[in-house]
Structures are given as structure tokens and as C-alpha cells.
Model the fold of this input.
Amino acid sequence: MLHIIEAGLRSTVQDDPRRGRARLGVPGAGPADPPALAAARALVDEPDSAVIEIVGLPFTFRCDDRRIVAVTGRDISVRAASRLPGWMGFAVRPGESVTVLGRARYAYVAVEGGIALEQVLGSRATYLPSSIGPLPRILTTGDALPLGPSWGDPGRAGRRLPTPAYDGAIPVIAGPHADRVPGALATFLSGEWSVAEGSDRMGLRLAGPDLAWEGPDLLTCGVLPGAVQLPRGGAPIVLGPDAQTTGGYPVIAVVASAALGRVAQALPGERLRFTVVTADRAAAELRAVGAAFAVI
Amino acid sequence: MRISAFGDAALFLELEQKIDAQILASAVAIADAWENGEGAGEAVPAYASVLLRFDPLVLSPEAAQARARLIAEAQREVPRPPPGRLIEVETRYDGPDLAAVAALSGVTSQDLVELHAGREYTAFFLGFMPGFAYCGTLDPRIVAPRLETPRPRVPAGAVAIADGQTAVYPFDSPGGWRLIGRTALRPFDAAADPPALIVAGDRVRFIPV
Done:
């Protein structure tokens, strides 16, 4: 068992996104920062395991038995028997408490053996708005999560991965409705943006230049995480992992898959810029992100 | 027809810009055919478009586009699907917007109930939230634009209308449609098989109680 001593604000169990039910209106959910989740899994050698996504540090837990643990996220550190960096696998003794510290919007705890929960609709990911998942609620102090079998191989501790860069312009691909709102994409790309109140796993709200528009409504169409939607009021929303499966606002740009975690981790007050890349270039970046975890 | 990139892992295929049963049938047929291909992901049909996901590590954007074009051309003249199951939604017409919608439409509240319950709807597609079926179309005499400011909380089971469409809210959520009634049915249950009460293609009738 993994016991939660200090739960953060809106921490949940996450897994690979739920696929195959978009036509029933079921969002994928899954991690807000996919490369950070993949790295945490790789560091404990549990590539398919369910993990904890922490929202609102600090977060403290302990395990009943000895486990290899890894914590990833933006600007995080770990306090266990000693102070440790993130992005590293380390052994935790039975009952030893581990605290995750830092200012990440999202941090991930992967544990040797994985969190042992049954899939619901094909995934163990938590979708809070409709309470879907095997543990479909915010984690709280006192929760005990079952863990899968441990391997007891001390040689697996000490693996490290480089912390990816979370700064720099966010690569986007021009969206399918960019031409419906003339000038909006150009202003979106030349402007400087900050993260506004009300941002969550459904969407990141941006504040910056005024992109208000008028014109006929769009027919509702399918959307996905990373889509930059432009409501009439002119404040763009970058859809997150819990975003609805269809939307009715123009999509002026779509964030490159490899950069979804970077945009999700943007901090309040931080300045964001967006830059256009080709789909080929975006795919190459995604390949590079995957390759980084394959080497360990 | 227009195919454009929807990021690096999906295409957006736009058939038309109108609501039409034949176009929707094509969108569904394209979605079905797409999902069978190698490297293809989920497809999401809506009124007149399909979002086609793919794995960019398996399929290049050019290969995905070429495949989408072939599929779309083959599915242009699909037969309309046979009528779906009939789902009856027992509805208590006491929603907070009933009187206002009736006034906007220039009819009495009782007339509005008869107009809404008086026809059979088709579930076009699901979206917005799990189990939320966009059904239509409303009698054109019903005037119900979306609310200027969405409500922060619409209760599960609310029967709502907007812009020629009607739906039942499966979960408590924010919402901008106008609420004319409520039902005890809950359109989504993750533990049920299938989890959605109303699926695309079903016929839906509202029964006043």
C-alpha cells in the first residue's frame, strides 16, 4: 500500500488517456504533462503503470514496503531520508515518508509495482468532472492505494533522466479554423500571453492581446487537447487533457504534441509565446522526446 | 470537402457547413473506415466534419492526408443508416427557462411543451460531456438561442434546448442551453454496457409526465 499523508489540492490517479470512447463524449483524461509521466514510469521501470498526478505541492506519502520511487515535474525536489532531486529513481524504506516540494503545477509520482487499480472504460485515468476512473475523485489525506508486486532489485535505483526545458516559445501548428477569424493567428503568434485565473485540466486560459471576433457560429466539431480555441470574447483557451470531445469555437492553432506538458506547466505570471512549426517538425520533436526515455 | 491539419496527430475533414442527415451519415462512415487503418486513432464525427486522429510516429502527415482523401471519396454516397432504437425520455416540463422560451417563441408554455414533445428526434452525435447526445431538430417555431452567459451549474437530468437542438445533461456541469424540463434518466453510467443511454443514430422522444 501507498499511504497519502499530505494530498495536495487536486491530486488524482492518472494513466494513459482513455481511448475509444470519444464518440460517447468521454474525454481522454490522462496526464497534463505526458513526458513527465512517461519519465516517471521509465525511472521505476513500470512503463504502463498508473501513477499519481499531484496538483498543489507539497505532497507527502509513505509505502508499507521497500519501493523504488520516482518524482517528475517542473521545478520539483524531494525530501526523504535526505534531500533528492526530481527525475531520479530512488529506494524508499518501509514507512519512510517522502515529500514532494516545488512550484510545479503538475508533478508525478511513479512507484515500482505501479498503483494496482482496475481499468474503467479502458484506462485507470481519473476524469473528475464526470467521476470516471477506478478511483474517480480527488486524493485525500489517509488514502491507501494498492501497489503491484515489487521486484526487490536494488540495482534499479539511481537511474536519472535530464530535466527537460520548460521555457521557450511553444510550437503550434496553424489550426483548421485560422482563416475564419482573419488576423487572429498572426496576433496570437506575435503577442505575449500569460496564464489567467480559472485554468485547470480542462483548459489553460490565456490573457493577452484582444482577439474578440464577430461572425457566424461554427458547427460543433471534434476537438482534442492542445487545440487553441477562440471564444467570441477573444481570450484563447488551450484545451487540456480533460477537455470535452467536441467544441463550437474556432480552433486557430494546435499545440505540438511534444509541447503539451510545457504549456500545461506554465506558471501564473509567466510570459508565454507561441511559434508556428510544420507538422513534420512537430513529429520529429515527439520522436526525440520518446527516444530520451528509451535509453534508460 | 476540405482536409486540414489539426495539430501533428490529427486531421480535420470538413464535408460541408450545414446540418443534414446525409452529410452526417457520410461523416460517420468516414470515421468508421478511418479507425480500421494502420496507425489510425479515434475518429470523432460531428454534424458535417470528422476529426481523424493518427499516430505521427507511424503515419506521416502526408500519408494520413492521402488516406483520408481516399476514404472520404469512397464514402461520399453512403446509404442513410436504418432508423435506430427508440429511446423514450419521461420529462417533467418545469424548467426555469420554459416560460422565457415560450415568450421568445410567441407561444404559451403548454404549446411549447407540445411542440417539444410532439416530434421524434435523431441523436446526431455525442460530445460536450460523456453521454451528452446532440438531438434534433426542433420545430422551427421554437426560438431558443444559447444563453448569453452560461449557468455555472446545470443539474444532471436537465432537459435542454438551444439553436434547433435538444439534449439531456448527463452530469451536473456548467451549461449554456435553455432548461425546459428534467428527467429521472441518467444518460451515462461508466459501469453499464454500453455506458451511454442514447448513442448516435438513436431516435429520441420526450414524454410529458
Remarks:
- Helices of chain B lie at 21-35, 61-74, 98-105, 109-117.
